[in-house]
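TL;DR need structure tokens for one chain.
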Amino acid sequence: MDNFWVSAFWAILPTVAVGLIFWIVMRSIVRADRTERKVYARIEAEERAKLGLDNPVT
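>> reply
TL;DR here they are.
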């Protein structure tokens, strides 16, 4: 019976590992996109302020 659980663990391990790697990669992509959008909005607001334009309605 002990051998069954060891075999089951080793059978499931690759799936769990790939799922974890996928989750980490997707999380980093989403965070990078969020940060990039935030920085772009800040830069755009600074440029609008320099030109004396009104802020856009959000």
